[in-house]
Write a structure and sequence with these properties.
2 strands, Four Helix Bundle (Hemerythrin (Met), subunit A)
């Protein structure tokens, strides 16, 4: 098997290796129904965090060069739509044919769409993902199980330095991919909460 490296060619950091091991080990332990419930719970947590945000708060950019809450919500909606599309192929026993879902996917709607529309889009995208997962069935993974080329982002925490991301591609089966989507929802739930807690909010 080809050794996985980061997109810059560097070896995977311990945090990235642990993430891959977690995805593969935990996904093998969970049933399809349990995975669906975990994604559902993560979606609810994110939606509850977003529900506390006002339109004015959603447009504030508290850190120069970083996303607003509106941009975070748009990103999640767009990512969920693409992720559901890829999962649909995997569950049907096919490798998804499209390019990977990249880490900064957005539509631009955060610049002009009303906040309530962005929130509704988030709910719709989450619902579509969950409805698809409700159709998933448990089947033993095998060497013939299709995978999807996935861009994974792991947060590195160097001693004495600011956290920084390491990006790498991995081939994931559907349960691993689903578990990664859950982590994605939870990461952005935390991001929304932290943005709201900043003084400029």
């Amino acid at each position: 098997m080809t050794q996985i490296t980061a997109i810059d060619g560097s070896p995977l950091a311990s945090e990235s290796i642990r993430m891959l091991e977690y995805l593969r080990t935990r996904a093998a332990e969970l049933t399809a129904a349990a995975l669906c419930e975990r994604v559902r719970a993560a979606a609810v947590e994110l939606q509850n965090a977003v529900a506390a945000v006002s339109e004015a708060e959603a447009r504030v950019r508290p850190i120069a060069g970083k996303w607003t809450i509106a941009e975070v919500v748009d990103h999640i909606s767009q990512t969920q739509v693409r992720a559901a599309e890829e999962l649909r192929h995997l569950l049907a026993g096919r490798r998804p044919p499209l390019p990977p879902v990249y880490e900064a996917l957005r539509s631009g709607a955060a610049e002009w769409a009303p906040w309530d529309m962005l929130v509704a889009d988030l709910h719709d995208a989450n619902r579509a993902m969950i409805e698809l997962l409700e159709t998933a069935r448990d089947e033993p993974a095998s060497a013939l199980s299709p995978t999807v080329r996935t861009l994974v982002v792991a947060l590195l925490k160097p001693e004495g330095g600011a956290p920084k991301p390491q990006l790498f591609f991995a081939e994931l089966r559907w349960k691993e991919y689903t578990l990664l989507q859950r982590l994605h929802l939870l990461d952005h739930r935390t991001q929304v909460r932290k943005l709201r807690a900043l003084p400029s909010m």
